[in-house]
Give the backbone structure.
Amino acid sequence: MQLIAISAGKIKNLISGENPSDKVIPSAIGKSPISTLESPSSVRVRYLGIESDEQADLRVHGGEDKAIYAYPLEHYPFWDEQRSSISSNVSGLTFGAMGENLTISGFSEEEVYVGDRWSIGEVLLEVVKFREPCFKFNIKMGWSGAAKAMIASGFSGWYLRVIQTGNIVAGETINVIPGTRGLSIKQQAQKYYSEPKKK
């Protein structure tokens, strides 16, 4: 189980469509890798996330319980295939494309549990919650069905809080310290989407 890449992004404007009158929405969902296996730079992790990373809407992103977003590398072929089926004029996705800070390998939503702790280099993280995709993910992916596809596939990734700050670098091993193992990320998401929503 390995840390493949670390990504960060600044707040930029997303355009909700192709017309000049379309809505402009500030977002930092566009992440770019700042540490990879080919270029393993050391990155500082603070209590509110990656040092150079930003979030535009702190009501739904960021904060202590959503400081770091992790996403499995193993899900990337699914998204490449989905996007190719919609348009042949798309390029392959790069690290950070899901808006994640940590691209990781060797994990899945079925195997990651709320309360598990991850030791990576100097840093200690704790698994908190699955990612709920919003309309900004659709815009980022250039596909109006992207959020629904994330929900249907269960390929959500998950958020982590920072228990201990420090430096991490791509290529490091992720050591898991199991919690109570009562609720996996997959189970948490299924429970959330199956419950009636309050109006």
Observations:
- The chain has a mean pLDDT of 92.
- The chain has one domain: 2-194.
